[in-house]
Amino acid sequence: MLLLVALYFILPISKVKSIKVLAYNQHSAKQIVKLSGIKPQQLQIGVFLRQKQIQAKIKDQAPEIKKVSFAYSAQQVKLKVIEKRNLGYVSKGNLFYRIETNGKISKINHRNPVSDVPIYFNFNKSLLRRQITQQIEALSPKIMQAISEIHASPTKSDPQRVHLYMNDGNQVLATIKTLAAKMQYYPQFKSNSSQKIMIDLQVGAYSYPLQ
């Protein structure tokens, strides 16, 4: 038995030759492999025994990931990644990073973000990011998909003011704490106007034509 165990660790089959991330584009997959810390020539048994730690490490640096499951085929380690609902991205240069309801920004960058979620600008504080993403998560999928950009636009009287740019050309001014509750009326404002409008939801709710 000891001889067989020793022989196994000597043979190439005991070592990782490649790592594959399932259901991810190549650009993001390479980053997930890097975050995992799994490298070729590591012992597969070592990866197997550290699955929970590896999953925790990936999820800490990429908070958009809900679960990582492992599979082994010959000398290949396969990582199946399940994501949380996509609430949008923050932009840094020409790259985009997922943002989550805990205010964290992922370390995984994307060259081409998904088009049906908003891009966030000027949300530099973790607390503000947490507050806005919690409100966005509470929106219906249809309304969230209608938002193109969300800009933090604080004033002295309202440090939570945000300016939304919609995919249809309309704009919205709102305060974070009431955003989800008031944005449900967006379709009604839109249907009542034949031109592009600014919808002000800060105090009350009214609209006026954009110049």
What this model shows, in words?
The protein has eight helices and twelve strands. The protein is an alpha/beta fold and 211 residues long.
Tag the structure with descriptive keywords.
alpha/beta, 3-stranded mixed β-sheet
H/E series: HEHHHEEEEEEHHEEEHHEE
**Which parts are unreliable, with pLDDT below 50 for 5 consecutive residues or more?**
none
> How far is the first residue's CA from the last residue's CA?
82 Å
**Topology, number of strands:** 12
Shape estimate: elongated
Q: Figure out the total of helices.
A: 8
Strand arrangement in the largest pleated sheet: 6-5-4-7-8-9-10-11-12
The pLDDT mean sits at: 90
- Rg, rounded, reads 23 Å
Helix content class: 25-40%
Strand residues, percent = 25-35%
Helix-strand makeup class: alpha/beta
Describe the main β-sheet briefly: 9 strands, mixed
Task: Compose a concise summary of this entry.
This protein is of the alpha/beta class and 211 residues long. The chain has 8 helices and 12 strands. The chain is 31% helix and 31% strand.
Topology of this protein?
Blueprint: H1 2-10, E1 18-22, H2 26-36, H3 44-49, H4 51-61, E2 65-73, E3 76-83, E4 89-92, E5 95-99, E6 105-110, E7 119-121, H5 126-137, H6 141-145, E8 147-152, E9 161-166, E10 171-175, H7 179-183, H8 186-191, E11 197-200, E12 206-209
